[in-house]
Amino acid sequence: MSSSSTGQCHSTAAAAHSASESLITADNSGNKAQSPALRAQTPVKLRASSPAFKPSPIKNRKPSSVASASTSQLRLAPAFTPRQQSRPRQLDEQRAEGGTKGHAQVLPVFESMSVGSDGCVERPTGPVNEEFFMKTLPAHTGQPPYMLPANHFAIDEQLRRVLVRETHAMSSVGESALPAQVHSYHSLSPQETVDVFGASFPIRQHQIKAQSIADGRCYSLHRITGTQPASKSALGAIDKWKAVQSPSIAQVYEAFTTRAFGDNSLVIVHELKPLAASLKSQLVDARAQVSEAFLWSLVLQLISALRTVHSAGLAVQTLSVSTILLSPTNRVYLNSCGLADVLALHGSLNMDAAQQGDLQAVGHVLSAILGTNAENYIAVQGQAPVVVPGAGFSPDFKELFGYLNHRLTPVVAIDDILRLAGSRVFVELDAARRESDLLCDNLRLELSNGRLVRLLCKMNFITERADSVMDPEWAETGDRYLIKLFRDYVFHLVNEAGKPVASMAHVVGNLNKLDAGSPEKVMLMSRDEKSCLVVSYEEVKRCVEEAYQELVAPTRR
């Protein structure tokens, strides 16, 4: 966004530079018809670095009654007044009614965000504000054909919506009776409750989102009530799972026991996957109809995760539709890893048999998903109906389904599953690479945003300060006044009709030149049009850095 916009703004800055040279030439030639606003001084005598330059205070300035046509394009807007001081009454009334009727609505980041009694900002608890976050940028805003639309420089709209919802899900905290802090985690919020099936009975697992005190990140706490590890050394079994890393596994971080919930609870900490929910809640309970392509992707992602687990000499042992997460982008994650090892759900463990059980569980997952459709059942005389892929599925998928459910061979191998998938493995690989390219392309658009935000923060720290412990005219004198003029040139410019110029290309282009310290010249004019400066972006950048360093200096009073 930043580099492309800079090129488009080059013509605007060049036009301003040429206009400034022509106006100054007219002043040297003694033309009596020129505007009084440009007869103040010549650029040779009026230097940006001159400490003697001090404009008159703003409150004593009177706007010029005559403005020439040559300066109308560079006339600046009136003095900026904060919205809190002059917000129109009709905007308040319309906002109270729930709409703006054509006016710009002022919305907070989250409607439910507020400041608590301790002075800290409380976390949002309501749903994401669709009206504020989900507005799309206009494809065309009336600019010439050679100028790209605003949405060309912004992040992909669909990706932005997903990221906004994930961010809100990470930061929101729901109301509950959970304790304020458990171990080193706070801001607990209930998520999903699932049943993990052990050797002979189900185990109720409560998933809780919480934030770590150590690093500030959000994690998923899996709490099993009224349960203790199988032995004193059983918690150490979780250390082996910490080293297992896969894109299709919610990573395990630690396990501990606690009485913070009022009972003996075992807690296993996993990586949080925002907006992801179990296959049971999204597909089985909802009786959703899925395509064969989705099922192939599901199998390949599960097989990839199991291959990583089995290569580490481990077995999941709890694989089911309740312990597999599905994200809005159809990403699949193994959840509840390590639980069977800590609780010793299956007693003495035969690793080969446990790993075979994981592969068989993939077939059970397919049966549970296909079982939501009556077309995938066949009646067998004297027996209960059997789940079989219907007529809409390909022969390859039917062969895979039979192989995973031991209808072809008693032993299941990952290599044989990949052989049955064939070229569909490349389809999954291509989809992953396309997603990676999409993320890289969008990251490239947002690459320079942080740099420009830092520059904007410095400028706003400096301009128009009115601190009681400082000189009230500090921001209006010397280099600081030059920064203020540059801020007006970038943000408060108006066109020949007196309407504000709200051009993102103009803003981003000038900020990029300022950050780079370009030697290109720009003409700055005071608000009363009585003073004019022709300076380079390099000089303005030096003024910003020196003023900021003076502002943050520890010895400054």
Description:
The protein is elongated, with a radius of gyration of 33 Å. By secondary structure, it is α+β, with helices and mostly antiparallel strands. The chain contains 17 helices and 13 strands. It starts with a helix and ends in a 5-residue tail after the last helix. Helix content is about 40%, strand content about 15%. Strand 5 (about 250-260) and strand 6 (about 265-270) form a beta hairpin. Helix 8 (about 290-310) runs antiparallel to helix 10. The protein has a six-stranded antiparallel beta sheet with strand order 1-2-3-4-6-5.
Short description:
With 557 residues, this protein is α+β, with helices and mostly antiparallel strands. 38% of the residues lie in helices and 13% in strands. Helix 16 packs across helix 17.
